[in-house]
């Protein structure tokens, strides 16, 4: 896995508190990540053939492809989050696997990249860092925000997941001196664009934030993201517009929230990117039959 080839755009699939008497969850494989926190009780997790005992206060990360079982030895309470860390256009079709689901070959399109397959970062199963309390608090806040099931609540939860992952990267990423000149802006560019997606964003502003000239910024941006800053931002805006249209917002509001100058500009850009008009997409997505015109 080459980390720079994947865009960090967390997508929380489910976030909740599991409150259970002693139990056993049979062997399964994973398509996504699980953040697993032990609030109360004792667990035994068999992970890729190795047994781990988890007690109160332990925080863990299970990765895609991790074959595991989970046993609650006592009465337990564990906050948990199933999520994607990296953008996948099929993320809404992915799912939480069940006991007995081991062969993920038919679902490779949904499989998240494994951080364990990257030479840049090695994240252990049990997370013991100087920021453990911060990581725990972020997990609880993610669950709280996601369970509101409002647009802002879900977006805040996903942004907190982005912050959570960056803390791990800072703790476990291997220093790469040769790459340092190319990385000043990579840790913030996606979240910056997401936070300011409804505002005018230009290359000059982003270059200034990165401490680079606009021309140098554009060159490095294209090297790492394989596209121009303009096209990258436009893609984010179109993807954001799709989400808002699915939620039933008016085309006028979607245009404003996604940073387009007017509805005409939005409609033209949307059709150029998707092949359909915003109105067509909205009507047929709600019906679940968004076919090409």
Question: What does it look like?
Answer:
- The chain has 293 residues and is an alpha+beta fold.
- 38% of the residues lie in helices and 18% in strands.
- The protein contains nine helices and eight strands.
- The chain has helices spanning 132-146, 151-172, 189-195, 203-210, 214-225, 229-246, 251-257, 263-274, 278-287; strands spanning 8-20, 23-28, 33-37, 43-47, 50-54, 59-62, 68-72, 76-86.
- The strands form two sheets. A four-stranded antiparallel sheet has the order 1-8-3-6, with helices on one face. The protein has a four-stranded antiparallel sheet with strand order 2-7-4-5, with no helix packed on it.
- Strand 4 (43-47) and strand 5 (50-54) form a beta hairpin.
- Helix 1 (132-146) packs antiparallel against helix 2 (151-172) and helix 4 (203-210) crosses helix 5 (214-225).
- It is globular and about 60 Å long.
- The protein starts with 7 loop residues before the first strand and ends in a 6-residue tail after the last helix.
